[in-house]
Amino acid sequence: MFESHFQTFDVTTGRAHGAERLAALRAELDRRGLEGFIVPRADEHQNEYVPPCAERLAWLTGFAGSAGLAIVLKNKAAIFVDGRYTLQVREEVDVNLLEPLNPAYTSPENWIEANVRPAWRLGYDPWLHTSAQSARFEAAVKAAGGTLVPVRVNPVDAIWTDRPQPPRAEAFEHPVKFAGETTAKKIARVQGALGACNGLVVSDPHAIAWLFNIRGADVAHTPIVLCFAFVPSEGKPALYIDGHKLSGATRESLAEYVRIETPSSLTRDLETLGRERKKLRFDAATAPARLVQTLENAGGAADVGVDPIALMKACKNTAELRGARAAHMRDGVALARFLAWFGPASRKGIAEIDAAKALETFRRETGVLKDISFPTIAGAGPNGAIVHYRVNERSNRKIGPGLFLLDSGGQYEDGTTDVTRTIAVGKPAPEMRERFTRVLKGHIAIATSVFPKGATGGQLDSFARRALWEAGLDYDHGTGHGVGSYLSVHEGPQTISKRGGAALEPGMILSNEPGYYKAGKWGIRIENLVVVQKRQIKGSEREMLGFETLTLAPIDLSLIDRKLLSAADIAWLNAYHATVRKALSPKLDAATRKWLAGATKPLAKK
What we know:
The chain is α+β, with helices and mostly antiparallel strands and 606 residues long. It has three domains: 2-159, 3-Layer(aba) Sandwich (Creatine Amidinohydrolase, Chain A, domain 1), CATH 3.40.350.10; 172-309, Creatine Amidinohydrolase, Chain A, domain 1; 318-599, Creatine Amidinohydrolase (Alpha-Beta Complex). It has 20 helices and 28 strands. The strands form eight sheets. Strands 4-3-2-1-5-6 form a six-stranded mixed sheet, with helices on both faces. A hairpin with an 8-residue loop joins β22 (480-482) and β23 (491-496). The protein is globular. The two termini are 48 Å apart.
């Protein structure tokens, strides 16, 4: 597989062995007196990218998406995936064994109520679910007359005989010149935000990486260290980490600010704090129910809510924004070189894997790429209609006439990038141009939006969809996600989506990526990263915000139906392309510079 140098275990075996693995799981459940078990796609931190040892859902079912959940009962089973994976799940999972369902229409809880029988015992692993998730499952099982049972040892692990070992990649320091703030100052800020709580249990490794200015390589594509931490309202924080991940130098540096503890000490310490009747904050999004239960069972009080680090991390400081701009400039040069290469290459019958490998090569030739920021989505024709498509040797298509969707990004020490371009191969059909232009109009609407401080991504989301809605069209994913600083390419709490509830704040980096997908035919998406910044408006009575576009890459002019663009749309596109041309041209060879000039030539004004 193309991604084999990042992915250390082949999830595709799940479908091939689905029947025997489900049978083995049911036998194990029967041995334990359970009539069913919940299998989430999750690790102990609710990470998007999980280590191979936590790929239980993929091993059991074959589904390799980044979000999903299976419920296996003794007489039936279902797998729940959202709209991003509607097509993918049917490709990867034996639907005769597991019924694919979209939780937007049939929630796992409703399915449990309808299918669990009275007196049945449904098992779950409290390390892999948050408190809110486990509470919903418990209510559903109770309504069905059954009992939700926490397990000490995950039954999937008991039958997964060749399960990989937990990762032990070495942690390393993230220089302050990139982080922009010392560990000591960050700890003080967090302690100042705890209010009446006696401490904060930090369960999100991204938050730990930000707080202690460390990075790692425990999962693919995101430089995090899998560990937990505890920040008391006063005194030194504790870091619960496998000691093999710390070199002598890193341990010595961290010891100035934190106590280094073994991972097994965490539950012991929570029991002690519980007996002391301490009140601790837990992150509702990532804290495993097991930790909350440990504190409460010992007599403590759990304040399950928002980790204050999330917002601090999301609002990038001056150094982080400087790094983001530098990373996008570097990435733009690599992408321009790729796009100049792609035109002639696509006429020679290259395939998706060839394109993905070529783009990664151009990024690696920068000399500073640490990793790609997610598995490259290189979808030709119908594969482009699969929102989170991942190319492999079996699905690999030749790139022929039509549309090619390329969604990719890089991890650099000074920033994280994510960019999508839809490229016409040959002459595009009128429908392709019309759909592409409507997506472009939505992209421009987000890029040019101005909004009052306190506005949420949920309020902006419809801006991106209006041109599509006017034609009776839509897309089933969010318009934008947050992006970290040499951290996760998908970061919260900031988002632009129908359910986006977090206020957008200066310094937040988000994607702007409306799309359109014609199932079985082709897909369209245009994605740039943007940063929230203050806007000065004459006569304004409120503090106003807007976006600065960070991504530097041409948008395919051959796919634009000029009649659908307003004069303001054309002005934005021409100004954006002028910025791309001016920024990248001095860093390109003569041939690529000439190509870029043609790719960014101004559209005639109306």
